[in-house]
Amino acid sequence: MPIEIIIAVGAGLLCGFLNTVASSGSAVTLPLLIFMGLAPSIANGTNRVPVLVGALIASIAFLRAGIIDWSLAFKILTPTVIGSIFGAFLAVYMPENYIKLLIFIALICAFLLLFSGVKKLFEKELEESLRYSGLEIGILFAVGLWLGLIVLDGGTYLLLALIAFVRLPLVKANAYKNLVVLATAAIALTVFSIKDEVNWELGGIMALGSIVGAFFGAKFSLNPLAKVWTFRFLVAVIVLELIHMGMQYF
Questions:
Q1: In whole angstroms, what is the distance from residue 178 CA to residue 149 CA?
Q2: Percent of the chain whose predicted confidence (pLDDT) is above 70
Q3: Given this model, what pLDDT does residue 69 score?
Q4: Contact 13/4 with Cβ under 8 angstroms?
Q5: What is the mean pLDDT of residues 28-41?
Q6: Measured distance CA(59)–CA(70) in Å, rounded
Q7: Is 6 helix (H, G, I), strand (E, B) or coil?
Q8: Are 195 and 39 in contact (CB under 8 A)?
Q9: What is the DSSP letter of 224?
Q10: Over 80: is that where the pLDDT of 78 sits?
Q11: Are the CB atoms for 197 and 161 separated by under 8 Å?
Q12: How many structural domains are present in the chain?
């Protein structure tokens, strides 16, 4: 078996696990796809294949566990999906330098938010104080906009929004996060497919690994240890991304 296939399957596995448990699996797969010789636009499109498949497997696992309430899912999906459509159109016209700056600002905001009391929310059961008003709808729309515009770390912001604002407990927040990622990834993959910017062979290989990673990620998310380790995964990934972006700028 060629080493490239082994690397692609391994990257897909890690992508599926990280996206299911926390987020930022694309921080692993996107640079790898570019390193393997794909143009950035094709790498961006190809990356949606393992993301989509991983989110599908994770969502099925959460559904089988009886965690997802479809009435709440519809409320969460509506503003995020609409926002992602607007974000995708906006991405066509936004200069690349603006996008890089937005990513850097968003990473800093996510990092600061993690240490503003969110850690305590990760460890609590908050469903009795569930919130869904104009503020929460606006925040979910903004996160959806980001998912369509940039994608990178969109799962992080969505998870934080569902926990800190909608007030879902971690396990349920992860379940609904994966549903949203599934829907928005499907939209994005359709757009990239129409533009012929998807390497289906490489994307399919990565998707094989993503299936395994998402399966074990969903199992881990249902474990009580997830309350501690999800927060640690988020901190580690965001710190590494800030370092990486800092090296690019300076």
A1: 18
A2: 80
A3: 92
A4: no
A5: 76
A6: 12
A7: helix
A8: no
A9: T
A10: yes
A11: no
A12: 1
DSSP 13: H
CB atoms within 10 A of CB 181: 27
Mean pLDDT over residues 95-117, rounded?
A: 69
Q: What 8-state DSSP symbol labels residue 10?
A: H
Helix (H) or strand (E) holding 239: helix 226-249
Instruction: Return the H-helix or E-strand segment holding 87.
Output: helix 70-93
Tokens at 29, concatenated = 């797969």
Q: What is the per-residue pLDDT across 158-197, written as a single tens digit (0 to 9) for each?
A: 888 898 889 888 888 889 999 998 998 888 888 888 888 8
Q: Which domain holds residue 124?
A: 3-249
Q: What is the pLDDT of residue 12?
A: 84
Crossing angle of helices 170-194 and 40-64, rounded to 10°: 140
Rounded Cα distance, 52 and 25, in Å:
12
Contact 99, 150 (CB under 8 A): yes
Q: How far from 22 is each of 83, 155, 241, CA to CA, in Å?
A: 21, 7, 14
DSSP per residue over 101-113, as a string?
Answer: HHHHHHHHHHHHH
Q: Distance (Å, rounded) from C-alpha 41 to C-alpha 26?
A: 14
117-161: pLDDT as tens digits: 555 555 555 555 788 899 999 999 999 988 877 766 777 788 888
The answer for residues whose C-beta is within 8 angstroms of residue 166's C-beta and 6 or more apart is 76, 130, 131, 132, 136, 140, 173
Any alpha helices (H) in 94-199, and if so which ranges?
A: 96-113, 119-122, 134-149, 154-164, 170-194
Separation of alpha carbons 116 and 62, rounded Å: 29
Contact 42, 238 (CB under 8 A): no
